[in-house]
Amino acid sequence: MGSTYELTERSRLLLATLVREYIDTGEPVPSQLVARQCGLGVSSATVRNVLVQLEDAGYVHQPHTSAGRVPTDRGYRVLVDMLLEGRRPTRPSAAVETHLREQAERSPLFDQLLVSASHLVSRAARHVGFALAESSSAVLQRIDFVPLGGSRVLVVVVSRGHQIAQKVVDAGEELRPDDLAQAGRYLNTEFGGLPLTDVREAVMARLEQERTLYDQLLARALRLAHSTLSDIPAQQTFHVEGAAALLGSDTHAGFSLPTMRALLEMMEEKSRMVHLLNQYIDGPGLTIVIGNEHTSPDLRSFSLIASTQVDGTSTRTVGVIGPTRMHYSRAISLVDGTAQAMSRVLRDTN
User: Of residues 248 and 239, which shows the higher confidence score?
Assistant: First the structure.
């Protein structure tokens, strides 16, 4: 493969024309069509010569000797880079933002906003849609203790932005609902409004002070809080949907059954997808991974487009996973606009 081949502006434009035609039709693109659509006033023979060079360099390939050419992952990358070079700032769709605001009014739970965002991009792009949020210093809104019978207690930690973490803890003894309510009031009065990381340290410090042992109820409250807070890492919430989109005739064309199964399994094992996204996303802005650029062999038939917004200690990402033959310009605008709209809604509601 002639990787030293340097693309001229003309060869880039011809390649971009071929990629767009292939995305639209799904059929190998003949040189005559490229010559007609490129707007450069060049002959079919000239285009044919350029395409031969592009094929040697690994940007396109010819499925059959008599057929036109189709782009490789490297060819898609050239188109995407051209789109990003000339791209204007995305204006979020008013309809998307309105939908997210309505969702925020119906339910203040942050999880539900992520569900809505992943659903919106999946439905609009007809690909798998996902939304990921992480906060490294969530602020405690309140902590509640719910008796489950016997010595078991459900500890519910609500942080600002209505993110919820919960854990069932064995208190070692049966506790009255009134005692649990009093324990919750004590913790909320002492620690409400503080970052969870600070709450963890303060609870640990108080547990180590002997004077807390004089009041058994307070000691119990601290122990219950500590057993839950110690398990809460940087809060990360992830939603993915759109498995049905993979079964659409246009979307799954060319995918082998093992490839489809691999992506569906990854959607089920959400931790794997989150791990993958954490590898790819290293800051705000767009992240685009095409075909063979994926670190996971399971995803090398797919492209991933994600937009990340950072607000203080919170990071939010919205994206899609679809075939390498996707409408990149449309998908980029969709995920970037949705991510921006979600950030604005959260800023206005918190």
Answer: 239
